[in-house]
Design goal:
The chain is of the alpha/beta class. It folds into two domains: about 120 residues, Aspartate Aminotransferase, domain 1; about 260 residues, Aspartate Aminotransferase, domain 2. Helix 8 links the parallel strand 7 and strand 8. The site of pyridoxal-5'-phosphate has 12 residues, from helix 5.
Amino acid sequence: MTSAALRDLRAEFPALDEGLCFLDWGASGLLPARTRAAMQAFLEKLAACPTAQSVWMWGEHGDGEGTRGRARAAIARMLGAKADDVALVESTTAGLQTAAESARVQEGDNVVLWEHDYPAVAIPWTVRARSRKLEVRFARTKDGAPDVDDLVARIDDRTRVVAVSTIGWTTGALVDLDAIAAETRARGIVLAVDAVQTFGVAPLDVRAVPASYVACGGHKWLCSPLGAGFLYAEPRTAARGRPQRFGLLAGRPARHSDWTAWFRSGEGGPDEEVVFPASGAALETGGQPSWPGAIGLAAATELLASAATGETLRHVRDLGDRLIAGLDTLGLETISPRDPTRRAGIVVFRAPRGREQELAWCDALRRRRVAVTPRWSKGLGGVRVCLHAMNLEADVDRLLDELRALPR
Ligand SMILES: Cc1ncc(COP(=O)(O)O)c(C=O)c1O
């Protein structure tokens, strides 16, 4: 059953009704029509400079009521946070790196990760571990997600950080963040969460799941352009943390009200102190931001948040049930949880002859305009199918029909 809100949402993705069966949101989403229009309008103005003022974008698209402010506010609403807790960053990877730089970790400390997580979650720590005698511990897997008992058993009084995704990117099994966050909060450990494979589909409320940091690229399930995402920092963590990089525009010159006043006064110099807010917003570490990225992120996030409030998760779980039932009929093994409450939008299944066949099937499906991706982590995975709010039962049935026709 598809509601009017979800049907309206699908209309923003005309390619879905023009022969494309798109089930690959976990790799990179499609751009909604209104997002493309908002970005195009920006590009036209950038080419024409209608007010003869070259930095016009700061008014229309800057902080507060401007587009960057709107993007922060829309993301904060989805997280149950405040706009000031959110920095707009380039990607999940960039956000996780900034979080790692800000955490207080010393020689002899350890960090707990998950053995099948995405490399971007591990890299900030595995690289540091080589040069700083930091220990990295990997929790084992149970039913496609971190085994929480095993993860908790690896925590000791030298554990400073637990970094984990919200879902298994090659299994579709939701991670029990409630249990992990309860443990990290009780022990004062930083919890860095990679939400890129669920944000936009499954709710993540930081009032209920007390993460220290949440990093998320916008280009997957949020359907914004590539190169735009966010990093949330919990207020006390942000106040205590030590950013290693300082973006000029995240700060304010101490003797002027803002940078515009600094420029206009003619008196400011490089020796003037710059004050940075003690909040997540200080974690924007660059210079001029990606304006098209922020415009796309604001438009897409507002669209997804408003069109499908509360309904998306139930919808994708229903589609997942339908897909799994169809895969059963075809005799194909599903490795994602059968229990819908343990899934969000990802369902992963295996081809009978394993990895080579999964690669071949994905190529063959793509030639038939069905987009799915093969994904594994240390052998765990298969063909990954991503089901979003704008997919219909017809998309699932088309995939199943195409699979039926493939050579075994
Ligand atoms: C779990 C997970 N984290 C991070 C990434 C990378 O995201 P980004 O390109 O935003 O850094 C991916 C996929 O590319 C992913 O699946």
